[in-house]
Design goal:
about 40% helix; about 325 residues; alpha/beta; Rossmann fold; two-stranded antiparallel ribbon; 8 strands
């Protein structure tokens, strides 16, 4: 357990203390859940401080949150420590938890799609923020969209990664990260990912995974456990899962290759699932792939036309 029973730091004007969640967009999602769990929200003002490259001075609002912080939930990612530790009250509880992701379901995914562009301020992440190394490689070689799609759908054995090796690497990677944290989640991920959907992309967790992580944070902190029992906590978490069935990050989903679903024996996999692309009519698996391929080829052509030498990059 982390955190004592008698915090002495000064509180906010409304009598609450601050609960600060430090980390990436997943930490922001956890912040949103905690803000809607009544026993926690009635005791704490919950705020998110985003992890940033390099040191960025805290804003006046975050200085107040840090100075009145009773509990700091500190996400472990890239070993970036909370940069404002000197402003924390000496009695603040600090609980480190892992970022959640899983490459195993999308073994060919590129975190950055080199042909993704932002065409709308409503979607600054672009139409296809995640790439696929097989598709990107064929686009770069100049292959036609129909040939790329046919190869991708029909020639899995020629480009398939070693899934057994990837499973071993993923288990080791997540275990290493868990070992740096007070709260662990890798066991739940590997015990559950085949039985229920935990991710919509390699790093966009579902409501069920975020709920489990929040429950494990709660169990790790005496100050949380004093606010309600676990049945009450799960009642709140299930209520929020019903309110946000795809979770806060479910607006973007990457199709899973049918052979990956078969090899991993994904019980929840639906080959007829349809996928949204920036508000367009939902697309089937093949339609999604063709749209990504066609869009990427068009971006490559636009760049070639803008290049001084007319060369394709």
């Amino acid at each position: 357990m982390n955190g004592g029973e008698s915090p002495t730091s000064a509180g906010l004007p409304d009598g609450r203390k601050s609960l600060v969640v430090y980390g990436n967009c997943q930490a922001d999602n956890i912040t949103g859940l905690l803000q809607e769990i009544e026993p926690i929200a009635s005791r704490y003002r919950v705020s998110h401080i985003s992890v940033q490259p390099g040191y960025i001075p805290p804003t006046p609002a975050s200085i107040e949150d840090i100075a009145t912080c009773d509990v700091l939930l500190e996400q472990f990612e890239f070993n970036v420590n909370f940069p404002h530790a000197e402003l924390l009250p000496p009695d603040a509880a600090r609980i480190r938890f892992p970022s959640t992701d899983l490459n195993l379901l999308w073994p060919l995914t590129l975190l950055t799609n080199p042909f993704n562009v932002t065409r709308s301020s409503l979607a600054p992440w672009g139409r296809f923020p995640y790439g696929d190394r097989v598709i990107v490689g064929m686009i770069e070689s100049g292959a036609a969209s129909a040939d790329i799609l046919a190869y991708y759908l029909q020639r899995w054995d020629e480009y398939a990664p070693d899934m057994n090796k990837m499973m071993r690497l993923e288990r080791a990677r997540l275990a290493f990260r868990d070992g740096k944290c007070d709260v662990q989640i890798a066991d739940f991920i590997f015990d559950t990912f085949a039985k229920s959907r935990l991710f919509f992309t390699i790093n966009h967790p579902s409501s069920s995974l975020l709920s489990e992580l929040v429950a494990r944070l709660w169990r790790n902190c005496d100050r949380f456990m004093s606010l309600c029992n676990e049945d009450t906590l799960w009642h709140e978490l299930n209520r929020l899962a019903g309110k946000y069935p795809r979770g806060p990050r479910g607006s973007i989903a990457i199709p899973i290759h049918p052979r990956v679903a078969e090899l991993l024996e994904l019980q929840w996999y639906d080959p007829t699932e349809r996928y949204e692309i920036l508000g367009e009519a939902p697309k089937s698996y093949e339609e999604y792939l063709l749209a990504m391929i066609s869009d990427s080829i068009a971006v490559r052509k636009e760049r070639a036309e803008l290049s001084p030498a007319g060369e394709i990059a």
